[in-house]
Amino acid sequence: MRYLLSFFLFLVFLNCQKKDNKPEFIKAKIISSKIDSLNSKEKVEEYIRGLSFPIIENFELQKLDLTHNFLEKFELKKIADFNREFDSITKIIADSLNISKSFYLMDIDNNGFTDLIIIGDDKGCNGGHDGFDQSCDFSAYCFMNFGNNNIKPIDLILENSVHKSIVPKFSKNKGLPLLEIHEPAEFNWKKEKTSSYKMFELTYEFGSLIEYNDNPQIYDIEKVEFKTETSGYKHPHFEILIKNDQTALLDAKYGNSIYENTKVYFRDTIPELKGKFRTNIKNNDYDNLVNILNYIDFPNMEHQYSINRLHTRNCSLKITYNNGKVKEIKDYGMVGTYGLRKIYELLFDFRFNQNWKENTTANTVYN
After folding, report:
1. CB neighbours of 262 closer than 8 A, spacing ≥ 6?
2. How far apart are CA 26 and CA 10, in angstroms?
Protein backbone atom coordinates (compact mmCIF):
# COMPACT_ATOMS: atom_id res chain seq x y z
CA MET A 1 0.00 0.00 0.00
CA ARG A 2 2.83 2.34 0.88
CA TYR A 3 4.42 1.73 -2.54
CA LEU A 4 1.10 2.36 -4.32
CA LEU A 5 0.72 5.67 -2.44
CA SER A 6 4.28 6.69 -3.31
CA PHE A 7 3.71 5.84 -6.97
CA PHE A 8 0.46 7.83 -6.97
CA LEU A 9 2.21 10.88 -5.49
CA PHE A 10 4.97 10.51 -8.07
CA LEU A 11 2.40 10.56 -10.89
CA VAL A 12 0.75 13.65 -9.39
CA PHE A 13 4.16 15.33 -9.22
CA LEU A 14 4.90 14.49 -12.86
CA ASN A 15 1.48 15.76 -13.91
CA CYS A 16 2.02 19.05 -12.08
CA GLN A 17 5.44 19.41 -13.67
CA LYS A 18 3.95 18.92 -17.12
CA LYS A 19 1.33 21.59 -16.45
CA ASP A 20 3.96 24.06 -15.26
CA ASN A 21 6.32 23.42 -18.14
CA LYS A 22 6.00 25.77 -21.09
CA PRO A 23 6.30 24.62 -24.71
CA GLU A 24 9.85 23.62 -25.49
CA PHE A 25 11.81 26.34 -27.28
CA ILE A 26 12.80 25.28 -30.78
CA LYS A 27 15.54 27.29 -32.41
CA ALA A 28 14.67 28.45 -35.94
CA LYS A 29 16.88 27.40 -38.82
CA ILE A 30 19.04 30.31 -39.97
CA ILE A 31 17.98 31.89 -43.27
CA SER A 32 20.96 33.49 -44.95
CA SER A 33 20.88 37.28 -45.36
CA LYS A 34 23.28 40.17 -45.87
CA ILE A 35 23.93 40.49 -42.13
CA ASP A 36 25.40 36.97 -41.99
CA SER A 37 28.27 38.11 -44.23
CA LEU A 38 29.28 41.00 -41.93
CA ASN A 39 32.45 39.55 -40.41
CA SER A 40 34.57 42.67 -39.93
CA LYS A 41 34.34 46.19 -38.52
CA GLU A 42 34.75 47.66 -42.01
CA LYS A 43 31.95 45.55 -43.51
CA VAL A 44 29.54 46.41 -40.68
CA GLU A 45 30.28 50.13 -40.95
CA GLU A 46 29.77 50.06 -44.71
CA TYR A 47 26.48 48.23 -44.24
CA ILE A 48 24.93 50.45 -41.55
CA ARG A 49 26.11 53.66 -43.20
CA GLY A 50 24.17 52.66 -46.28
CA LEU A 51 20.89 52.05 -44.45
CA SER A 52 18.13 54.61 -44.80
CA PHE A 53 14.87 54.82 -42.85
CA PRO A 54 11.68 56.93 -42.86
CA ILE A 55 12.15 60.06 -40.79
CA ILE A 56 9.49 59.10 -38.25
CA GLU A 57 9.81 56.25 -35.77
CA ASN A 58 6.61 54.41 -36.71
CA PHE A 59 7.20 53.57 -40.36
CA GLU A 60 3.52 52.67 -40.87
CA LEU A 61 2.53 56.29 -40.18
CA GLN A 62 4.86 57.69 -42.83
CA LYS A 63 2.90 60.14 -45.00
CA LEU A 64 5.69 61.76 -46.99
CA ASP A 65 8.39 59.90 -48.87
CA LEU A 66 11.18 61.27 -46.71
CA THR A 67 14.09 59.15 -45.49
CA HIS A 68 17.33 59.77 -43.67
CA ASN A 69 20.43 57.88 -42.67
CA PHE A 70 21.16 58.77 -39.07
CA LEU A 71 24.16 56.42 -39.09
CA GLU A 72 25.98 57.79 -42.12
CA LYS A 73 28.97 58.77 -39.95
CA PHE A 74 28.75 55.93 -37.44
CA GLU A 75 32.06 54.57 -36.18
CA LEU A 76 32.11 51.17 -34.53
CA LYS A 77 34.03 51.25 -31.28
CA LYS A 78 34.78 48.72 -28.56
CA ILE A 79 33.67 49.79 -25.10
CA ALA A 80 37.28 49.53 -23.92
CA ASP A 81 38.28 52.14 -26.53
CA PHE A 82 35.98 54.93 -25.34
CA ASN A 83 37.92 57.72 -23.64
CA ARG A 84 35.05 59.59 -22.01
CA GLU A 85 35.76 59.99 -18.31
CA PHE A 86 32.31 58.81 -17.22
CA ASP A 87 32.62 55.41 -18.96
CA SER A 88 35.07 53.91 -16.48
CA ILE A 89 32.44 51.77 -14.73
CA THR A 90 30.98 50.68 -18.08
CA LYS A 91 34.43 49.42 -19.08
CA ILE A 92 34.72 47.40 -15.87
CA ILE A 93 31.31 45.80 -16.48
CA ALA A 94 32.15 45.03 -20.12
CA ASP A 95 35.44 43.43 -19.11
CA SER A 96 33.74 41.29 -16.44
CA LEU A 97 31.17 40.08 -19.02
CA ASN A 98 33.81 39.50 -21.69
CA ILE A 99 32.19 42.02 -24.04
CA SER A 100 35.19 42.95 -26.14
CA LYS A 101 33.75 43.49 -29.63
CA SER A 102 31.99 46.42 -31.28
CA PHE A 103 29.32 44.31 -33.00
CA TYR A 104 27.53 41.01 -32.39
CA LEU A 105 25.29 38.77 -34.49
CA MET A 106 22.38 36.70 -33.15
CA ASP A 107 18.79 35.79 -34.00
CA ILE A 108 17.09 37.51 -31.05
CA ASP A 109 13.47 36.99 -32.12
CA ASN A 110 14.03 33.45 -33.44
CA ASN A 111 12.59 34.21 -36.88
CA GLY A 112 15.53 32.62 -38.70
CA PHE A 113 17.15 35.90 -39.72
CA THR A 114 20.31 37.05 -37.94
CA ASP A 115 20.01 40.37 -36.10
CA LEU A 116 22.83 42.86 -35.59
CA ILE A 117 23.96 44.67 -32.42
CA ILE A 118 26.36 47.60 -32.82
CA ILE A 119 28.26 49.71 -30.30
CA GLY A 120 30.03 52.92 -31.20
CA ASP A 121 29.92 56.63 -31.94
CA ASP A 122 27.31 58.16 -34.24
CA LYS A 123 29.13 61.54 -34.22
CA GLY A 124 25.95 63.12 -32.96
CA CYS A 125 27.60 65.50 -30.50
CA ASN A 126 30.90 67.23 -29.89
CA GLY A 127 32.53 67.86 -26.56
CA GLY A 128 35.69 67.71 -24.54
CA HIS A 129 37.94 70.12 -22.76
CA ASP A 130 40.30 70.70 -25.64
CA GLY A 131 38.49 73.01 -28.00
CA PHE A 132 35.43 70.75 -28.32
CA ASP A 133 37.31 68.71 -30.88
CA GLN A 134 36.27 65.21 -29.85
CA SER A 135 33.00 63.34 -30.03
CA CYS A 136 31.09 62.81 -26.79
CA ASP A 137 28.64 60.22 -28.13
CA PHE A 138 28.04 56.62 -27.04
CA SER A 139 25.46 54.71 -29.06
CA ALA A 140 24.17 51.14 -29.15
CA TYR A 141 21.55 49.85 -31.57
CA CYS A 142 19.91 46.57 -32.41
CA PHE A 143 18.92 46.02 -36.03
CA MET A 144 16.06 43.54 -36.17
CA ASN A 145 16.18 41.56 -39.40
CA PHE A 146 12.94 40.40 -41.04
CA GLY A 147 14.41 39.37 -44.38
CA ASN A 148 14.12 40.95 -47.85
CA ASN A 149 16.15 43.95 -46.60
CA ASN A 150 13.44 44.73 -44.04
CA ILE A 151 15.47 46.10 -41.14
CA LYS A 152 14.13 47.80 -38.01
CA PRO A 153 16.52 49.80 -35.79
CA ILE A 154 15.97 49.87 -32.02
CA ASP A 155 17.89 52.25 -29.78
CA LEU A 156 19.20 50.20 -26.85
CA ILE A 157 19.83 53.24 -24.64
CA LEU A 158 16.66 54.38 -22.87
CA GLU A 159 17.80 57.84 -21.87
CA ASN A 160 19.09 60.14 -24.59
CA SER A 161 21.98 61.64 -22.65
CA VAL A 162 25.65 62.17 -23.50
CA HIS A 163 26.55 60.70 -20.12
CA LYS A 164 24.84 57.35 -20.78
CA SER A 165 26.59 54.16 -21.77
CA ILE A 166 25.54 50.51 -21.51
CA VAL A 167 26.85 46.99 -21.98
CA PRO A 168 24.69 44.70 -24.16
CA LYS A 169 25.13 40.94 -23.78
CA PHE A 170 23.34 37.97 -25.31
CA SER A 171 22.00 35.34 -22.93
CA LYS A 172 19.45 32.54 -22.85
CA ASN A 173 16.64 31.47 -20.54
CA LYS A 174 15.69 27.82 -21.06
CA GLY A 175 16.96 28.20 -24.62
CA LEU A 176 15.06 31.43 -25.29
CA PRO A 177 17.41 34.09 -26.72
CA LEU A 178 17.51 37.24 -24.62
CA LEU A 179 19.45 40.48 -24.66
CA GLU A 180 20.84 41.71 -21.36
CA ILE A 181 21.38 45.45 -20.99
CA HIS A 182 23.77 46.35 -18.18
CA GLU A 183 23.50 50.00 -17.16
CA PRO A 184 26.16 51.25 -14.72
CA ALA A 185 25.47 53.49 -11.76
CA GLU A 186 25.95 57.20 -12.43
CA PHE A 187 27.75 59.84 -10.38
CA ASN A 188 27.62 63.64 -10.60
CA TRP A 189 30.60 66.00 -10.73
CA LYS A 190 30.77 65.87 -6.93
CA LYS A 191 31.17 62.08 -7.22
CA GLU A 192 27.78 61.62 -5.58
CA LYS A 193 25.78 58.60 -6.73
CA THR A 194 22.74 59.68 -8.74
CA SER A 195 21.52 56.28 -9.95
CA SER A 196 22.07 52.59 -9.22
CA TYR A 197 23.33 49.76 -11.40
CA LYS A 198 20.55 48.17 -13.45
CA MET A 199 20.26 45.04 -15.55
CA PHE A 200 17.42 44.62 -18.04
CA GLU A 201 16.71 41.23 -19.59
CA LEU A 202 15.00 41.93 -22.91
CA THR A 203 13.02 39.78 -25.31
CA TYR A 204 11.49 40.71 -28.65
CA GLU A 205 7.74 40.88 -28.10
CA PHE A 206 4.96 43.08 -29.51
CA GLY A 207 7.26 44.52 -32.14
CA SER A 208 9.90 45.77 -29.72
CA LEU A 209 12.52 44.80 -27.18
CA ILE A 210 10.95 44.82 -23.73
CA GLU A 211 11.69 43.28 -20.33
CA TYR A 212 11.26 39.51 -20.35
CA ASN A 213 8.44 38.14 -18.20
CA ASP A 214 8.35 34.35 -17.77
CA ASN A 215 4.97 34.39 -16.01
CA PRO A 216 2.65 37.14 -17.33
CA GLN A 217 -0.56 37.77 -15.41
CA ILE A 218 -3.94 38.77 -16.81
CA TYR A 219 -5.57 41.81 -15.21
CA ASP A 220 -9.07 43.12 -15.87
CA ILE A 221 -8.14 46.55 -17.23
CA GLU A 222 -11.09 48.93 -16.98
CA LYS A 223 -9.58 52.12 -18.34
CA VAL A 224 -6.26 53.68 -19.27
CA GLU A 225 -5.56 57.38 -18.78
CA PHE A 226 -2.45 59.04 -20.13
CA LYS A 227 -1.24 62.60 -20.27
CA THR A 228 1.96 64.32 -21.23
CA GLU A 229 3.16 67.29 -19.22
CA THR A 230 4.95 70.45 -20.29
CA SER A 231 8.64 70.99 -19.65
CA GLY A 232 9.40 74.38 -21.13
CA TYR A 233 10.06 73.02 -24.63
CA LYS A 234 7.68 72.34 -27.51
CA HIS A 235 7.04 68.74 -26.59
CA PRO A 236 3.62 67.33 -27.60
CA HIS A 237 0.97 67.97 -24.97
CA PHE A 238 -2.16 65.80 -24.97
CA GLU A 239 -4.45 63.69 -22.80
CA ILE A 240 -6.11 60.44 -23.74
CA LEU A 241 -8.67 58.21 -21.99
CA ILE A 242 -9.39 54.67 -23.20
CA LYS A 243 -12.13 52.52 -21.63
CA ASN A 244 -12.51 48.76 -21.79
CA ASP A 245 -15.40 49.10 -24.27
CA GLN A 246 -12.73 50.63 -26.54
CA THR A 247 -14.30 54.09 -26.52
CA ALA A 248 -11.66 56.80 -26.26
CA LEU A 249 -11.36 60.55 -25.74
CA LEU A 250 -8.45 62.68 -26.89
CA ASP A 251 -7.59 66.25 -25.94
CA ALA A 252 -4.77 67.39 -28.24
CA LYS A 253 -3.56 70.63 -26.69
CA TYR A 254 -0.52 71.63 -28.76
CA GLY A 255 2.59 70.33 -30.50
CA ASN A 256 0.83 67.24 -31.89
CA SER A 257 2.24 66.66 -35.36
CA ILE A 258 3.16 63.37 -36.98
CA TYR A 259 6.64 64.83 -37.59
CA GLU A 260 7.05 66.34 -34.12
CA ASN A 261 10.23 64.44 -33.26
CA THR A 262 12.00 65.03 -36.55
CA LYS A 263 14.31 67.78 -37.72
CA VAL A 264 12.49 68.37 -41.00
CA TYR A 265 13.09 72.01 -41.84
CA PHE A 266 9.46 72.58 -42.84
CA ARG A 267 7.88 70.73 -39.94
CA ASP A 268 6.08 73.89 -38.76
CA THR A 269 4.05 73.74 -41.99
CA ILE A 270 2.82 70.20 -41.27
CA PRO A 271 -0.82 70.29 -40.06
CA GLU A 272 -1.13 70.00 -36.28
CA LEU A 273 -3.73 67.91 -34.51
CA LYS A 274 -5.51 70.16 -32.03
CA GLY A 275 -8.82 69.98 -30.16
CA LYS A 276 -11.05 67.41 -28.46
CA PHE A 277 -11.96 64.16 -30.19
CA ARG A 278 -13.61 60.78 -29.60
CA THR A 279 -13.38 57.38 -31.28
CA ASN A 280 -13.48 53.63 -30.81
CA ILE A 281 -9.97 52.21 -30.68
CA LYS A 282 -9.46 49.56 -33.39
CA ASN A 283 -9.67 45.99 -32.12
CA ASN A 284 -6.08 44.97 -32.87
CA ASP A 285 -4.66 48.19 -31.41
CA TYR A 286 -6.71 47.89 -28.22
CA ASP A 287 -5.78 44.22 -27.76
CA ASN A 288 -2.13 45.09 -28.30
CA LEU A 289 -2.26 47.81 -25.63
CA VAL A 290 -3.92 45.52 -23.07
CA ASN A 291 -1.62 42.57 -23.84
CA ILE A 292 1.51 44.67 -23.40
CA LEU A 293 0.24 46.19 -20.14
CA ASN A 294 -0.39 42.69 -18.83
CA TYR A 295 2.98 41.43 -20.02
CA ILE A 296 4.95 44.20 -18.30
CA ASP A 297 3.05 43.51 -15.06
CA PHE A 298 2.13 47.16 -14.51
CA PRO A 299 0.75 46.79 -10.93
CA ASN A 300 4.21 45.81 -9.71
CA MET A 301 6.08 48.61 -11.43
CA GLU A 302 7.47 51.65 -9.62
CA HIS A 303 5.11 54.55 -8.95
CA GLN A 304 7.66 57.04 -10.19
CA TYR A 305 10.60 57.08 -12.58
CA SER A 306 12.88 60.03 -13.21
CA ILE A 307 16.14 61.04 -14.84
CA ASN A 308 18.68 63.55 -13.60
CA ARG A 309 18.12 66.07 -16.38
CA LEU A 310 16.14 69.27 -16.97
CA HIS A 311 13.82 70.19 -19.84
CA THR A 312 12.74 66.70 -20.79
CA ARG A 313 9.45 65.02 -21.64
CA ASN A 314 7.39 63.67 -18.76
CA CYS A 315 4.05 61.93 -18.44
CA SER A 316 1.55 60.25 -16.18
CA LEU A 317 0.00 56.83 -16.87
CA LYS A 318 -3.04 55.83 -14.80
CA ILE A 319 -4.60 52.36 -15.07
CA THR A 320 -7.83 51.32 -13.37
CA TYR A 321 -8.20 47.55 -13.09
CA ASN A 322 -9.69 44.62 -11.12
CA ASN A 323 -12.83 46.33 -9.77
CA GLY A 324 -11.51 49.81 -9.17
CA LYS A 325 -7.87 49.28 -8.21
CA VAL A 326 -5.65 52.09 -9.50
CA LYS A 327 -2.01 52.10 -10.55
CA GLU A 328 -0.49 55.47 -11.44
CA ILE A 329 3.00 55.82 -12.85
CA LYS A 330 4.69 59.19 -13.18
CA ASP A 331 7.65 59.18 -15.51
CA TYR A 332 9.92 62.22 -15.67
CA GLY A 333 11.88 61.64 -18.85
CA MET A 334 9.51 58.97 -20.23
CA VAL A 335 12.24 56.33 -20.11
CA GLY A 336 11.29 54.38 -16.99
CA THR A 337 11.53 50.93 -18.61
CA TYR A 338 11.70 49.45 -22.09
CA GLY A 339 8.14 48.15 -21.68
CA LEU A 340 6.85 51.59 -20.72
CA ARG A 341 8.66 53.08 -23.70
CA LYS A 342 6.65 50.75 -25.93
CA ILE A 343 3.38 51.71 -24.20
CA TYR A 344 4.15 55.40 -24.74
CA GLU A 345 4.87 54.76 -28.42
CA LEU A 346 1.47 53.08 -28.82
CA LEU A 347 -0.40 55.90 -27.09
CA PHE A 348 1.46 58.56 -29.07
CA ASP A 349 0.64 56.70 -32.31
CA PHE A 350 -3.05 56.44 -31.39
CA ARG A 351 -3.33 60.17 -32.13
CA PHE A 352 -2.71 59.47 -35.81
CA ASN A 353 -3.77 55.89 -36.55
CA GLN A 354 -7.34 56.00 -35.17
CA ASN A 355 -10.50 57.45 -36.73
CA TRP A 356 -10.99 60.46 -34.45
CA LYS A 357 -14.09 62.69 -34.67
CA GLU A 358 -14.52 66.09 -33.07
CA ASN A 359 -15.98 66.04 -29.57
CA THR A 360 -17.13 69.52 -28.52
CA THR A 361 -19.07 68.41 -25.43
CA ALA A 362 -16.12 67.21 -23.34
CA ASN A 363 -14.54 69.58 -20.83
CA THR A 364 -11.67 67.32 -19.92
CA VAL A 365 -10.26 63.87 -20.63
CA TYR A 366 -8.09 63.01 -17.68
CA ASN A 367 -9.62 62.82 -14.20
Report:
1. 55, 56
2. 28
Under a CB-based contact definition with an 8 Å cutoff, are residues 138 and 314 in contact? Answer: no
Q: Are strands 103-106 and 126-127 parallel, antiparallel or unpaired?
A: unpaired
Q: What CATH fold (topology level) applies to the domain 221-358? A: Mago nashi protein (3.30.1560)
**Are the beta carbons of 121 and 137 closer than 8 angstroms?**
yes
Residue 175 or 291, more confident: 291
**Closest alpha carbon to 289 in 350, 198, 361:** 350
Q: With beta carbons less than 8 A apart as the criterion, state whether 74 and 139 touch.
A: yes
Nearest-angstrom CA–CA distance, 136 and 126: 5
Residues of the chain with CATH 3.30.1560: 221-358
Q: What are phi and psi of 110, to 5 degrees?
A: 55, 40
223-233: string of b/e by CB count within 10 Å (b at 16+)? bbbbbbeeeee
CA distance 344 to 138: 24
> Residue 85 is which amino acid?
E
Query: How far does CA 23 lie from the centroid of its chain?
Result: 26
Model pLDDT for residues 14-68, shown as the tens digit of each residue = 454 444 556 678 889 999 999 999 999 999 999 999 998 877 666 566 666 677 7
Largest CA distance in the chain: 87
Quick one: which of 181, 215, 199 has its CA closest to 295? 215
